[in-house]
Each structure stands twice: as structure tokens, then as C-alpha cells.
Amino acid sequence: MGISLRDFSRKITELFARSGLDEPRVETRFFLREMTGLELEEQLARADLPLAEEMEADLWLKAKRRAAREPLAYIAGKAWFYGRSFLVKANLLVPRPDSEVLVEAALEEIEEMVPDASAAVKAQVPEVQEPKNQGAAQELTDMILREVPTTPDNKPLSILDSCCGTGCLGLSLLAELRDMDIAAGLHLVDLDDLALQTAKENAARLDLLDKVSLEKSDLWPARIDADASAGTRLGVRAEPVCSPESDCKYDIILCNPPYIPGRDIFALMPEVAMWESKIALDGGPDGLDFYRRLADGCKDYLAGSGVMILELGAGQAEQVI
Length: 321
Prior knowledge:
2 domains; 12 helices; 9 strands; globular
């Protein structure tokens, strides 16, 4: 007979404690929930049941990966963000609850942009938990750069998610707007092929692919009239997104850019420093390189009533503003 779930949980907790993970008991509960689908109550109810040998071997291998500080999202292949499950692949930036405030901020701005959106927005915005302290470099604040808001003339909202990664920011916002019956389209931009492919898969999982286009480009969508060869489009639209006819202006621009000073990356928690993409983390010597580029380019991409919502690192707000 195989080991009981109770004894196996203790074995994993001891492994996690030896590896230096904070709160190894809590880590074990989260690990087993993600790997088996069993919530804590179910884990307790089935504590005396034996594990099949194949399951025990598979879980132990995955537990050793977590003990090596590999992010749980990479091992599980998914992470939860704004109430939805997103595919996550190795080396991509893991969606974090801290970033959910950007979606909430966007919904609040849309309340001012779209007629009769107020009640729908208030019904949709969930209670966002306070971020956990993951070190000063990981503490977040959000900033809104905007012009005077106006209401669009019955046109679908146009949204850009730059440095999109898994697409969790833009797709979460788009899914919320769909649930509120607010018409919108989303353009996802990233330099990483794996990020774009993962974002496309997430769009399909959320049944949003018909409202999404994807582009391999550096921060901003390529202007087709300026350089017909620039950018690689992976979306489902036949027409270029930034054609002369479309003028490529966005009502909402979301961006979680690299903002960690290069010298500080290796001081971050091991799950970040050892595993996540350095390209997605490194914001240059002072962490502000991408904010300078965003400030320079946003005037060309924001609609007249457009709003840009950014994620910032701790202590960066004054410098960026």
C-alpha cells in the first residue's frame, strides 16, 4: 500500500523546510492544491488515503523542482490572475496578484469613457488583495498618465497591452469588458515568440481570439506606412493593425515593463532571479529605461481621451512622473 497523503505531505514539508522556503507547511498546501486539484478541506478529508505509486513518484519529482526554487506556476503550467487561469511557460514573467490593480484602474477609467458603464464596472471590479511584501524591488505602485477624458463616439474601445508576456493584463480587461457587454479590441505586443504564442493560447482558452491581434515588436506596434517589413503579426486579423487608415490610437494602454535596475536582479528572491526572463526584468542601470521610451512614444499611440496605465517598482513614481 502506498504512502498516505498525510505522511506524504509531511515529507514534502520537510523537503521545503530544508530548501529554505518560507512557510513550508503553507507551500505544501498550495503545491498539493495546484498539482492534484484538492483544496485544503479535501486534503484534510483524504489525509489517510494512500497515494498510487505513480502519483507519489510524479509529485515527488515536482516537489524537488519546487525545492530548487522553480516557480510553482512553471511546474503547474498555469497561474491565477484576476479570477482566471492563465497558461504560464518557463522563462515567462509569472502573473502576480500585485498586478491586478492595473486591470482595476483600467475599469475605473472606462467608467468615465463609456456611457452607462458605471454600474457595470462597479459590479465587475473584484476586491483585490493587498500585495504581499516580496522585498522593496518587488513592491508595486500604479500610475496613470492621461489626457482629459472624453466619451468615444460609439466606437469599440481600443486596448494595447505592451510587453504583454502571458497576456494576463490585456486579456483580463478584455474578458471583463465582454462580460459587461462593452465592445473592445485588444492588441498584444511583445518581443518574445514564446510570450506571444502563450498569449495567443490564453486568448483562445478565454474565447477571445476573435477580438485579439498579436504582434512581435519592441514596445510599440510597428507603423506599416513607415516600414512595411517591421513587426511580425501573429493574430487573426487580415489587415495591418497600424495602417494609415487605422492611425493606431488606443483608448487604453497597459504595460508592465521591465523596471528592475540591472544590478539588483540577482538580489531578488530566487524564484525570480534564477528562473524568470532577465529581458522581462531588466530596466537598465536605474530601472527607468522603458519608462523613458513609454513617455516618448505614448503621444503617438494614445487617443485624444486615452489613458496609459503602468506598473512601477518601489520608489520609482517620483522619478517617472
